[in-house]
């Protein structure tokens, strides 16, 4: 992130005490005083952290993130040493009740003294697997939330070229997968301006009614809450109006109850926040979640995948929203209601 910002003269990157990153634009004297519009994404993905190294080619790891127990049974993983060299291992034991995180014992395929406490591990999908695009779908180790993060960066690259968009920035949070810890800290530290409007980006588990390839999703809520109604409704109106002039633009409006996202956190702490997400396959690398929970074995991990078209659609959605949300003619639900009253209040008149 720091290298990316250093290549762009009009951007500034700062870090709060919790390690969250804030990328903002250098304010021009002529810039209008608009409320900050901050696009958020989280930097982490469920993964293993080495917490112990045995003398018999075994290592102990904790798992930070939400993955169901059956997926750990005899699963293959790879652990990266300090030089980013991968070391393959297989899980031989799971303590799913360990606190604060699940713990596993893994047996290394080859002995090594290169792995130390604090090294990172992930699922291993076979020696021949490489991230790739097939039939319009990107298959890779982690889309959640890196695909949304990439879309946020691309969006800022577009908007920073527009005059009057200096109030648009990014908030990149830590430790989302273990309970939104970075986002909560940013609220408690007041790192995020209270006047800011937050567009929280996510990758959310796809269901039949929220298909991959059906377009990016304006997420109105998650399994814990509904998001800021006025902000969510305004964005919905903006996208509806845009689609009238551009019928090729695809988007969806869904609840997405497959998980909880940072928009709930920010809304809980009194911020105007909502979510835009990509429908995701193999959520948290879990293939056939419903089958695994019903007892189908073996439960298999696999690459996450998204639609490339949905990804580009997310960028379009964000640009359209940012360019329209503060315009005087920006549609809102209140304006729509007032117009309906003007058009049809005559039916209430009495003789």
Would you kindly provide a written description of the structure presented here, covering whatever features stand out?
The chain has 351 residues and is α+β, with helices and mostly antiparallel strands. It has helices spanning 2-6, 146-159, 181-188, 229-245, 262-268, 289-293, 308-324, 333-344; strands spanning 11-15, 21-25, 37-42, 47-53, 58-64, 76-80, 86-95, 102-108, 120-123, 132-134, 137-140, 168-173, 197-205, 217-219, 252-254, 272-280, 304-307. The protein has 2 domains: 2-42 and 142-335, Zn peptidases (Aminopeptidase), CATH 3.40.630; 47-125, Thrombin, subunit H (Beta Barrel). Strand 14, helix 4 and strand 15 (252-254) form a beta-alpha-beta unit. Helix 2 packs across helix 7 (308-324) and helix 4 (229-245) packs across helix 7 (308-324). The model has no long low-confidence stretch (mean pLDDT 95).
Short description:
With 351 residues, the chain is α+β, with helices and mostly antiparallel strands. It contains eight helices and 17 strands.
Defining key terms:
alpha+beta; Thrombin, subunit H; 2 domains; 6-stranded antiparallel β-barrel; 8 helices; 17 strands; 24% helix
Topology (SSEs and partners):
Elements: H1 2-6, E1 11-15, E2 21-25, E3 37-42, E4 47-53, E5 58-64, E6 76-80, E7 86-95, E8 102-108, E9 120-123, E10 132-134, E11 137-140, H2 146-159, E12 168-173, H3 181-188, E13 197-205, E14 217-219, H4 229-245, E15 252-254, H5 262-268, E16 272-280, H6 289-293, E17 304-307, H7 308-324, H8 333-344
Parallel strand pairs: 3-12, 3-13, 13-16, 14-15
Antiparallel strand pairs: 1-2, 2-12, 4-5, 4-9, 5-8, 6-7, 6-9, 7-8, 10-11, 11-17, 14-16
Helix pairs in contact: 2-7, 4-7
